[in-house]
Amino acid sequence: MNKTARVAMVALLCVGAAACNKKEVKPPQAQGVDNGPTTTQPTDNGSGKYQLGDLERDACLRQRVVYFDFDKTEIKPEFQAIMACHAKYLQDRPTSQARLEGNTDERGTREYNLGLGERRANAVSSALQAAGGSASQINVISYGKEKPVCREHNEDCWSKNRRVEIVYTAE
Amino acid sequence: MKKLKQLLAVALTMVMALAVGPLFAQGQQVLTGTVQGMTKSAIPIAVVPFAQSGGSPLPTDMADVMRNDFNRCGKFRSLEKSEIVEQPSQGADIKFATWRLLKQDYITVGRISDAGGGMLKVDYELWDVNRQQSLLAQSLTAPAGDLRGVAHQIADQVYEKITGVRGAFWTRIAYVTAVGTGNNSVYSLIVADSDGYNPQVVARSKESLLSPKWSPDGSKIAYVSFESGNSNIYIQDITTGSRQLVSARSKGINGAPAWSPDGGRLALALSYTGSLQIYSMSLGSRDETRLTNSPGSINTEPVWSPDGQSIYFTSDRSGQPQVYQMPSSGGSAQRISFEGKNNAEPNVSFDSKQIAMVQGSGNVYRIAIMDRSLGGQIRYISPGPTDESPSFAPNASMLLYAAIEGSRGVLYSVSADGKVRQRLGLAQGDVREPAWGPYRQR
Question: Mind listing the pLDDT tens digit for each residue in B382-396?
Fold first, then answer.
């Protein structure tokens, strides 16, 4: 293997392993929603409502992970826009169904973390409902610390694991 | 913290590789590891290899099994095989001067003979070296395939004769292994001998398995599985392999099973009301009684006191998770953990005197034991930083717990004073969620 190939490979590995370079890894944040409502506009066909397919097209709807602070269940301000657009989607498409999957970092016991993950998912559920989503469209499940996306033992990694994933089971 | 450093320093200076585990058995990966640390008060004992009269060489070195049992429990220090210079097989052949010179307090000798029909007869004797006195002389008959079991039973007899406490080597442990990641993950619930040998797969799943708990008679294991999507509780009979779905509410968590001491009830944590609360389910009628009523807080990880009167559990009703105690019929709970930032996952010794728990301070999670016979005094038996799932042996002489080393989950067995530990890891994959089973009936 020549040097260039090796460098390329290391780079690729780093894309996968998020904590490769600790200095450059930033805590996860909502992206692409800085402009608020302007990027959360449905692909309008005149109705102003979200359509089938918008989950893949709309910059806001494509954001489906909400991150939390350690031992916290409050939804941070930067995720309010995501709550708003997903609530609107649920409202606009009454047949859609979302599963909210609560997750935690590795600290603390497994069963306690099941509870903590559920509390986070419940917080997202409440926020979606407060913004107009219907409880009948939302399912909550907690995986606790059973499904980490990052397996290093540091805050960079933990911050990626403390999350609720919004998974549409019906679009 | 100072105490921990001292403990570590002692452990480091006294680290000895006393025994090495096996490599493979029956296709399933066996937990392997070395015993580390030593206590000054450990009793020296020589376990002379068993003499064999006739027949082909046996696959099991029984003396080796016993030596490993004695070393990892922390109460004994067995003479290394290479230092066993004479090989008596009965009391009359023991030259006591030799063993006194080797500074041994006790010696065991024995012999194995064919009892016909695939059975072996094992005779053994325990002698007090200084008094030149016979303490035990017994004979056991067992299938040739169960020599490890026989060795553990002899070690139990010797342990009890010398310490006055029933031995717990001839017991089983349960744990969960996780091999592979993502869609290729395979989780297995395993039952093995207390030293990690003879692992048997009890259940397998592509999704997480957790919280295995032994029924008091050792015939069943309750556990949580995500195999159908949500967390559900199953009870599996480990002899017949038959399985019952015990709790599968579609809304919320079905978790943290715990057997009552009489085996008639299962405490569990359910969140269908909106928050995680503890219930007690009759295994006969399946009726559930809600035991905790603190909406909004997490209440989980119940464990029964040995007399069945109380349930210990984890709750964050005061902000951080802490350990509480309440009547097993429900009612007001009393907080019992006050040290560290938080405490969780209690496990109670057979005599109710000691309560092991996971204590978190900062990012360090260690196993702490609260000794209620010493006014709630706390001692730490693990170094952290990611230790959990403490589980007492039925005689409380040792515990199992789970730790993370590097990126791997491993188990440790540790003497109750925290001074001697054996790492139990897989060649590949994670080990977690240990549960020490009850005494076995012969």
Answer: 999 999 999 999 999
CATH value at residue A13: 3.30.1330.60
Residues 6+ apart with CB under 8 A from B316: A112, A115, B297, B298, B322, B342
Of the candidates B152, B192, B148, which has an alpha carbon nearest to the alpha carbon of residue B172? Answer: B192
Q: Tell me, what's the ipTM?
A: 0.91
- Residue B5 parent element (H or E): helix B2-13
In A, which residues are within 8 Å of B226 by CB distance? Answer: 143, 146
Alpha-carbon span B17 to A144, nearest angstrom: 37
State which of B7-11, B37-41, B368-372, B424-428 shows the largest mean pLDDT. Answer: B368-372
Instruction: Scan for tokens 């709807």, then name that residue.
Output: A61
Residue B77 contacts residue B43 (beta carbons within 8 Å): yes
Asked if A142 is an interface residue toward chain B (Cβ–Cβ < 8 A), one would say yes
Residue B400 CA to residue B421 CA, distance in Å, equals 9
Higher pLDDT, B407 or B213: B213
Q: How far, in Å, CA of B372 to CA of B329, rounded?
A: 22
Domain total in chain A:
1
Residue A98 · residue A137 · CB < 8 Å: yes
Give me the domain span that covers residue A116.
3-170
- The answer, for A168 touching chain B at a CB cutoff of 8 Å, is no
Beta pairing partners, B112: B52, B122
- In one-letter notation, the amino acid at residue B410 is V
Backbone angles phi, psi at A122, to 5 degrees: -65, -35
Distances (CA, A) of B246 to A49, A60, B252: 44, 41, 15
Name which of B297, B302, B60 is nearest B288 in CA terms. B302
Using the Cβ of A106 and the Cβ atoms of chain B, whether some distance falls under 8 Å is answered with yes
